[in-house]
Specification:
Helix content is 55%, strand content 15%. A hairpin with a 4-residue loop joins strand 3 and strand 4. By secondary structure, it is α+β, with helices and mostly antiparallel strands. Helix 1 packs antiparallel against helix 6, helix 3 packs antiparallel against helix 4 and helix 4 runs antiparallel to helix 6. The protein has a five-stranded antiparallel sheet.
Length: 232
């Protein structure tokens, strides 16, 4: 049976995994992945707006993985517009990257829950297979942490390299051209980062419980034993 120290560490890791699963599920459904402002370039050039006048042509935009909202400002007041990635924006966004981000979010939730189950199993039961033991715990934590990192990398490339905000801002616009004025990642994106760090922390908790890292070479005790036998 696990020692009290291992039970406490495994329970803590299980609770952290459960919180991460809930946080990731909540983050997927929000539109708080990116927040920014968009400049109505056409309108500003028409009136040669500078300084405080430029604020009349700066709108807002925020979006997540499935939907979002933009407020266009072209000197006549803000006009909100709700949009959905599927199917509205499917033709103008890098669909393969966007779908990959969603799939990795699902995989992250699944393996986080699997890791939570095995953490609690090892806390209150006796491991009887390799995947129930320390190697399995490292495996689930590593897969979940890797998925979190891939989500951040793919979504960052979609936003920064493929200029996702500008594509959304210019969606169904014929007379005006919009340009990204400012842009920042919002709460849901940082939740994914926090979950990745938690999974890395879980790996450290496994090590604190007294388990060696996988694939680490055990000390060769055979040589020492053989040398001792030769002395007698």
């Amino acid at each position: 049976m696990p020692t009290p120290q291992k039970k406490i560490l495994f329970c803590l890791a299980g609770v952290l995994s459960f919180v991460c699963a809930l946080g990731t599920a909540a983050a997927i459904g929000t539109q708080l992945w990116v927040k920014g402002t968009i400049l109505c370039k056409t309108g500003a050039l028409l009136v040669n707006a500078t300084g405080p006048e430029l604020e009349k042509f700066i709108g807002e935009i925020q979006y997540g993985l499935f939907h979002g909202e933009r407020v266009r400002q072209c000197g006549l007041g803000g006009r909100p517009f709700q949009f959905s990635f599927f199917p509205d924006l499917l033709k103008i966004i890098p669909a393969s990257i966007h779908v990959s981000v969603i799939l990795f979010c699902m995989v992250l939730i699944i393996f986080t829950l699997v890791g939570m189950g095995f953490f609690l199993y090892n806390a209150f039961g006796s491991p009887y297979e390799t995947l129930h033991g320390p190697v399995g715990l490292y495996l689930w934590s590593f897969i979940a942490c890797s998925c979190g990192c891939l989500i951040m990398i793919l979504f960052s490339s979609e936003v920064k390299i493929h200029h996702l905000s500008e594509k959304i801002a210019n969606f169904k616009e014929k007379s005006f051209t919009f340009k990204t004025h400012s842009e920042r990642f919002a709460d849901s994106f940082w939740i994914i980062l926090a979950c990745s760090l938690v999974h890395f922390l879980n790996a450290l908790l496994i090590r604190l419980a007294g388990f060696e890292f996988p694939f680490s070479k055990p000390k060769d005790s055979g040589t020492a034993t053989g040398a001792a036998d030769l002395m007698y």
